[in-house]
Structures are given as structure tokens and as C-alpha cells.
Write a structure and sequence with these properties.
Helix content: 55-70%
Low-confidence stretches: 193-199
Organism: Agrobacterium vitis (Rhizobium vitis)
GO molecular function: isomerase activity; metal ion binding
Keywords: Isomerase, Pyruvate
CATH architecture: Up-down Bundle
Shape: globular
Protein name: Maleylpyruvate isomerase
CATH superfamily: dinb family like domain
CATH class: Mainly Alpha
InterPro entries: DinB/YfiT-like, MDMPI_metal-binding
Largest sheet: 2 strands, antiparallel
Mean pLDDT: 89
Distance between the termini: 44 Å
Order of helices and strands: HHHHHHHEEHH
């Protein structure tokens, strides 16, 4: 018999003991699972490509695969800053120099292949650490982004899940929406239906 996500989480916590850190009880666990699964899927598709393959066109007009990887990495950094602001009790995201000058997709796409791959992996790890270290009160916060938008922190895993699964397809090296988890496909389909009704 398969365990539910909650049962599996409790079993893992019992095995790992008191010293390990876990997502807060009020965290959006299903969305975190979709985001983390999407990151693993994207990483697998990225690792299937040679360094030369990164220069090939993606499914995004005018972007190489390098651009897609840089975009996904910088999105993780931005979300990590929002979550960090919530964890620290600040009301707004901050971007310190010299990051402010280099967080551009074209710059990221110009990095050597090993640095671009590292950028993705490091940004994803940082985002995961921020999510894991966020207490229940932080998940209820809304933080002002650099663009002046108020972002509910509990939506950040869904924002990431949606973006990273779609970015895997945009790499154009065999990923397909047919590989999406059913829960993701259903939510994307429901959102598309709502968007069609409102247009």
C-alpha cells in the first residue's frame, strides 16, 4: 500500500530524528513537492545536454537553451530573496550589489557552461533552504517584490513549480507536458479554462 505524502513525511521525520530540519507544518506541502519534483526533472534534462547543446535554440523565440537555464536560475534567486525577506520579518525583497548588475538573462546565458550549470544548481539549493527554514508565520506573509508587486509567500512554491516544469519543455530536448504530474496538469488546465472564460 502506498503511503500518502503526509504519512511518508512523518515516517521520514521519525527515521531522521530531532536534529534534522523540515518544512513547517503550515507550508504548502503539495506545491513544494511539485516544485522540487520539477527542479529534479529540469536538472535531469539539463544534465542530458552536452555543453555544446546548451547553445542550441530553445522553444522560446530568440532564446538559446542557455537563456532558459539562466532565466530559471534567476527566478529561483528572486523567489529565495522573497522567502528570505519573510523569514527575516522584512516587508520587501532586497537586491544587493553586485547582484543587481548581473541578474540578467543575457548575462547568465553568456556564462561558461559549467558556471551556468552551477548557477542553476546553487540557486535551486538556496531556494530549497529558504523554504525549509521558513516558519509557519513566514508562510502567511506577503512580501513586496523588486517590481513593486505584493507576493504571498505561500504561492512561491506554485510559482516555481509552474515555471520550472514549463522551462523543462522550453529546453526542447525531449521534455513534454505529458511528463507533468497529474496534479500539475490539472491545475494548469483549470487555470487555462479560467483564463479563457475571462478573456
Amino acid at each position: 500500500m502506498a503511503l500518502s505524502l503526509e504519512e511518508a513525511r512523518r515516517e521520514l521525520q521519525e527515521r531522521q530524528g530531532l536534529g534534522a530540519r523540515y518544512d513547517a507544518l503550515q507550508a504548502p506541502h503539495a506545491d513544494l513537492a511539485l516544485a522540487r519534483l520539477g527542479a529534479a526533472y529540469f536538472a535531469r534534462k539539463l544534465n542530458e545536454m552536452s555543453d555544446a547543446d546548451l547553445a542550441l535554440p530553445s522553444r522560446v523565440a530568440g532564446w538559446s537553451r542557455r537563456h532558459v537555464v539562466a532565466h530559471v536560475a534567476y527566478q529561483a534567486r528572486g523567489l529565495a530573496r522573497l522567502v528570505e525577506a519573510a523569514r527575516q520579518g522584512r516587508g520587501a525583497e532586497r537586491l544587493e550589489e553586485p547582484e543587481a548588475q548581473i541578474e540578467e538573462v543575457d548575462f547568465g546565458a553568456s556564462l561558461p557552461a559549467h558556471a551556468l550549470r552551477y548557477l542553476f544548481h546553487h540557486a535551486q539549493i538556496h531556494l530549497n533552504v529558504e523554504w525549509r527554514d521558513l516558519q509557519d508565520v513566514g508562510w502567511r506573509a506577503s512580501i513586496e517584490s523588486l517590481q513593486g508587486r505584493l507576493v504571498p509567500i505561500r504561492e512561491t512554491p506554485w510559482i516555481r513549480a509552474r515555471a520550472i516544469w514549463q522551462a523543462a519543455v522550453q529546453l526542447d530536448n525531449g521534455a513534454s507536458s505529458h511528463h507533468f504530474p497529474q496534479a500539475l496538469s490539472q491545475r494548469l488546465g483549470a487555470k487555462a479554462g479560467v483564463d479563457a472564460l475571462s478573456s
